[in-house]
Specification:
The chain is α+β, with helices and mostly antiparallel strands and 226 residues long. Helix content is 28%, strand content 21%.
Length: 226
């Protein structure tokens, strides 16, 4: 779907609704509440695909069924604009948050508060001049934001900050995608790997005289083979 034309966003909402419903039903009815293989949904451009119905309830219940949803957003304000009062509920049910950089004030403010404070030593000197000259020195400890809003706004593009439940947030290097062993298989590395969707959809099967096929009657009992 186009990320700049919201006309058909309702189709995406329908797809995600069916996806989560079918996965949850499969987990409950066949696998006693937990899928045997973890399903991870990477929802890129989450702010540009419309609203996923009841997402605030889904993120709280699908984890127990071995299903997770990763929302990729430009700013937190995008999430609040779409899901209104449920935005904080959605964020609260996320076990991890990864900050890749940005300059949106509310996002930076929330992250700065989450990072907490550090203790710094201050050293002040004073001098009084007059008939009698005097000097003074003062040592003290103050609390300072670990990273202020202006420091987060100019975060190095090669760095990221990960907030993981139960662990203090930490600064890390971004992974160099070109170093991944499967990078040569991507279209960025070689144009011959590009997947042509139009060509795939219009491909026609060519039958050969020696080909053997099984014809299955979908309406017959137990999918009987003719």
């Amino acid at each position: 779907m186009s990320d700049n034309d919201p006309t058909f966003n309702f189709l995406i909402a329908m797809v995600y609704t069916q996806l989560f419903n079918l996965l949850c039903e499969k987990a409950d009815d066949k696998y006693h509440g937990r899928l045997p293989v973890h399903v991870r949904c990477l929802i890129d451009e989450a702010a540009n695909i419309g609203q996923i119905p009841h997402l605030e309830k889904l993120v709280a219940t699908i984890r127990s069924r071995e299903i997770s949803a990763c929302l990729v957003l430009q700013t937190k304000s995008q999430l609040k604009a779409i899901y209104k009062d449920h935005a904080d509920t959605i964020i609260g049910n996320m076990d991890s948050q990864l900050f890749l950089g940005g300059s949106e004030p509310s996002t930076l403010k929330d992250l700065s508060q989450a990072l907490g404070k550090e203790t710094i030593d201050t050293y002040n000197t004073g001098e009084t001049r007059g008939r009698e000259q005097s000097h003074s020195m003062n040592y003290s400890k103050l609390g300072k934001d670990l990273m202020s809003i202006d420091e987060l706004a100019v975060l190095d593009g090669d760095k990221c900050i990960l907030q993981l439940r139960g662990v203090r947030p930490f600064l890390s290097d971004k992974y160099d995608l070109t170093q991944h062993p499967n990078y040569p298989l991507t279209a960025d590395a070689d144009e011959r790997n590009y997947f042509d969707t139009e060509r795939f959809l219009h491909r026609q099967m060519r039958l050969k005289r020696e080909d053997v096929f099984e014809v299955v009657d979908a309406d017959a009992p137990e999918n009987a083979v003719i």
